[in-house]
Amino acid sequence: MNAPADVSALDWAAVRADFPLLGREVNGKPLVYFDNANTGQKPRSVIETVDGFYRRHNANVSRAVHTLGSEATEAYEGARKRLARFANVRPDELVLCSGTTFAINLVAYSWALPRLKPGDAILLTRMEHHANIVPWQLVAERTGAKIKVAEILPDGTLDLDALYAAMTPEVKLLGVTHVSNVLGTVNPVREICREARRRGIVVLVDGSQALPHRKVDIAAIGCDFYAFTGHKMCGPTGTGALWARKEHLAAMPPFIGGGEMIKEVSFDGTVFNDPPHKFEAGTPNIAGHIGLGAAVDYLDALGMDRVEARETELLAHLQEELAAIGGLRVFGTAKEKAAVVSFLVEGAHAHDLATLLDLEGVAVRSGHHCAHPLMRYYGVAATCRASLAFYNTHEEIERFAAALKKVRGLLA
């Protein structure tokens, strides 16, 4: 087992200063941004990279021999290489796209739709985000396949015995989140993939909440597909990627047709480009992905082991403060947990709670968090969610706790 990362090796105040937005005020009070599971803030280096692209290098990629086109292409493909290195995969197995939702839909329509038939099944878990539910429902309706659901335990962990028992011969694909966006539960995806592989089941892992907060070695996980989103990992919105095994990418037909994804077009037919470009039709989010490359460089410089250790330390403090507040219901108490806490105050609606916290300068998420089936499991319509990142501070946690106590008094 690796030794814990040395959190004190970094000046976290200096790291925080890299994020311009964190210095602003909301409702006359210093901002406490605890909505990182929704989107992460951007360091100055990412903002300047995007700005610099538009100021000095703006051109389309792969379609021009002039200097600007060459510079744009080099920067864009360079971002793909950096992202691949960050996740320990090959660049030619990494499809750049708008994020996890697009990535999962790509697999649903390009891999699953041509293969599934009546009698087949898609296995999902109770804690999935809607983006890892709805595409499979749409595909099931069109193919005659059915959806099976693996349940969770009251503490928010997957019932692994039930999950493995549900891996019956008709199951062709398993969709599972690496880290729950509501509960923070970290699922043992390597073990899950090993069990699925033994049964011949293809696995897609939703890595949206994992890659921004911990070191992820996709190659070591043993999945078939891994989807993630750039804007949650300090990158621009509209960025992300799908990693897929090379044999899958070679066999899958394109999801969207158009420019760039072709080698030759005639009215008699089209010869498609090699993967991953076969799946990247049209002009991509060039500046955004170049910015994501800068975000990866930033996270690499911090060290993901230190990022995880820092957030684990902050989570322990947050849990301690919440435990001291009466009348609070916390959802998800898994031992393996990321820095995400969903909660409710007795007698208060989640939206009212979040609105009053905002008046105190505290930004938390309220709602169903795109996880209706999980809300129904706990018998609630919505929760508040405080989600931390490495640039948050212990002082912010104490201010959040003080604001929550004040708000609870107003709602009592």
From TrEMBL:
- Enzyme's top EC category: transferase
The EC number(s) given in the record are 2.8.1.7
Q: Which cofactor does it need?
A: pyridoxal 5'-phosphate
The record's listing under InterPro entries reads: Aminotrans_V_dom (IPR000192), Aminotrans_V_PyrdxlP_BS (IPR020578), Cys_dSase_SufS (IPR010970), PyrdxlP-dep_Trfase (IPR015424), PyrdxlP-dep_Trfase_major (IPR015421), PyrdxlP-dep_Trfase_small (IPR015422)
In the record, biological process GO terms are: cysteine metabolic process
Q: Does the keyword Cytoplasm apply?
A: no
Reactions it catalyzes: (sulfur carrier)-H + L-cysteine = (sulfur carrier)-SH + L-alanine
Assigned keywords, A-Z? Pyridoxal phosphate, Transferase
A Pfam family annotated for this chain is Aminotran_5
Aminotransferase class V domain segment(s): 32-400
Question: In the UniProt record, does the keyword Nucleus occur?
Answer: no
Give a GO molecular function annotation for the protein.
pyridoxal phosphate binding
Role summary: Catalyzes the removal of elemental sulfur and selenium atoms from L-cysteine, L-cystine, L-selenocysteine, and L-selenocystine to produce L-alanine.
Q: Which protein family is it in?
A: Belongs to the class-V pyridoxal-phosphate-dependent aminotransferase family. Csd subfamily.
The identity of this protein, by name, is: Cysteine desulfurase
Organism the protein comes from: Luteimonas gilva
